[in-house]
Amino acid sequence: MPLKKVTNKTLRQTVYERIRKSIIAAELLPGELISLRQLATSLGVSQMPVREALLQLEREKVVVIESNKSMRVNKLNSKELDEILWIRLALETMAAEKACELRPDSCLPRLKALVTEMWDSTDRPKEYFKKNVQLHFGIYKLAKSPNLLQIIDGLWARIGPYLNIQMIGLAHIRKVAMFCHERMYQALAERDKAEMQKALEEDLARTADRIRPLLDTPLD
């Protein structure tokens, strides 16, 4: 389990962030049994902060606690995926459209650079995924609504493992997705809410379509 040992920061928060990132990165797969002892050893901490982090992730529905007290990474079913897509379409469109209103000119060079970096990383799935997150949230943060951003972030945590899994070995899919990301950036630059909505809806719907076949497929 490729987790780095904890150093500074608040221990509980650091452990929580590390485990959450490992789940989103599909280092812990949906449905995988979670070993409290193994996680604590990997992180170089006691089991207490790991248990607290997992309980927090359970409240966020990223982790599920079963009747026998065992813990697993939560899985999605088709109904949940459709619900998450519906909510993402509403909330992420809301954030992106607000970003078109409020964005300063100073944000554009960095976001344009991110689009270029994404094109350059289409043959490196993990790097591409990081840039994809940075681009989406770089836009959403411009809406200046931290509560909305927190809700969106929670939805990404649920769907993140599947995003990572479906990206492996599909460079051509990433290249197709890049046209949506190009359009999103251009819509932001032009403050074009209608085009932003179209590009974002296409991106999210295509992603859901690629994830759907994974829901009934063993991932281990």
Keyword list:
220 residues; mainly alpha; Arc Repressor Mutant, subunit A; Four Helix Bundle (Hemerythrin (Met), subunit A); 3-stranded antiparallel sheet; 9 helices; 4% strand; globular
Any overview of this molecule?
Helices cover 68% and strands 4% of the residues. Strand 2 and strand 3 form a beta hairpin. It has two domains: 11-73, Winged helix-like DNA-binding domain superfamily/Winged helix DNA-binding domain (Arc Repressor Mutant, subunit A, Orthogonal Bundle), CATH 1.10.10.10; 78-216, GntR ligand-binding domain-like (Four Helix Bundle (Hemerythrin (Met), subunit A), Up-down Bundle). The chain has nine helices and three strands. The longest helix is centred in the middle third of the chain and has 25 residues, at 78-102. It is globular and about 55 Å long. A three-stranded antiparallel sheet has the order 1-3-2. It starts with 10 loop residues before the first helix and ends in a 9-residue tail after the last helix. Helix 6 (125-140) runs antiparallel to helix 7 and helix 8 (171-190) runs antiparallel to helix 9. The protein has 220 residues and is mainly alpha-helical.
Distance between the termini: 14 Å
Instruction: Report the top-level CATH class of the largest domain.
Output: Mainly Alpha
CATH architecture of the largest domain: Up-down Bundle
In total, the number of domains comes to 2
Question: What would the average pLDDT be, to the nearest integer?
Answer: 89
Secondary structure tally, helices: 9
